[in-house]
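Module 6 notes. Inverse folding takes a fixed backbone as the condition and produces residue identities as the prediction. Think of it as a translation problem where the source language is geometry and the target language is the twenty amino acids. Below is one complete input and output pair. Work through it position by position during the lab.
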């Protein structure tokens, strides 16, 4: 009997995501993008150079780090709770995976040793439905993002589905996201994007770029 169903979801989070990446190839998951256009646009908008340090939170098996490497960015880190997603990413990137720092950890609890110029998160923060998890995330963010550093965050918007990957999500407007993050962040710009999953479902995302002022 699989007793994991009786374990609170928080402790099962890692298990959930590992299962997702065991069962699906990177281009089969709902959030797959052949080219992460909005993320690339917002990273370019930061104006940071190729030597800037960029961390992709919950990077999964996304193509983003490989594309950033191709564009000359040199100091890339990918953090994900799922070791399986990191394995998938390393396979995709082959030798280039050695040019990236990989961290297998829960962002809400990780004790960051480095500081970054850019913190990028597409479709991770919105899974944090518990107040203490959001507090943990924001604590990590404030610990790891440099002063005047850029926070790029993509979440489900108000008209998006209430669930993703079978899990409940919090849907944000730019203002409610800003309120959640705190007033030490200045909202620089906001975009809306319709993501169409490989099975044809439309998901309405918001993308915001914030600058950390204190
Ligand atoms: C919907 S996927 C998005 C993946 C990637 N950002 C993209 O856009 O393709 C969510 C990712 O966040 C990771 N994740 C979920 N909760 C996490 C947590 N608490 N800490 C770190 N990673 C987490 C999952 O393993 C998964 O790879």
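Target side of the pair, the amino acids:
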């Amino acid at each position: 009997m699989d007793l994991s169903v009786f374990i609170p979801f928080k402790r099962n989070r890692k298990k959930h995501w590992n299962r997702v990446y065991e069962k699906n190839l990177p281009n089969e998951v709902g959030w797959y993008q052949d080219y992460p256009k909005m993320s690339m646009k917002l990273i370019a908008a930061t104006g940071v150079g190729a030597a800037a340090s960029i961390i992709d939170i919950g990077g999964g098996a996304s193509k983003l780090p490989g594309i950033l490497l191709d564009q000359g960015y040199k100091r890339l880190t990918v953090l994900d709770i799922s070791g399986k997603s990191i394995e998938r990413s390393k396979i995709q990137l082959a030798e280039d995976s050695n040019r990236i720092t990989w961290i297998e950890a829960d962002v809400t609890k990780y004790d960051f040793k480095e500081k970054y110029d850019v913190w990028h998160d597409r479709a991770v923060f919105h899974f944090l439905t518990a107040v203490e998890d959001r507090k943990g995330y924001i604590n990590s963010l404030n610990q790891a993002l440099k002063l005047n550093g850029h926070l790029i965050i993509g979440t489900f918007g108000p008209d998006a589905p209430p669930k993703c990957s079978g899990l409940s999500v919090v849907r944000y407007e730019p203002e409610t996201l800003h309120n959640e993050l705190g007033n030490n962040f200045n909202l620089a710009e906001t975009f809306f994007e319709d993501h169409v999953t490989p099975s044809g479902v439309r998901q309405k995302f918001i993308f915001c770029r914030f600058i950390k002022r204190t």
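Reference fact for the lab report: Residues 1-7 have pLDDT under 50 and may be disordered.
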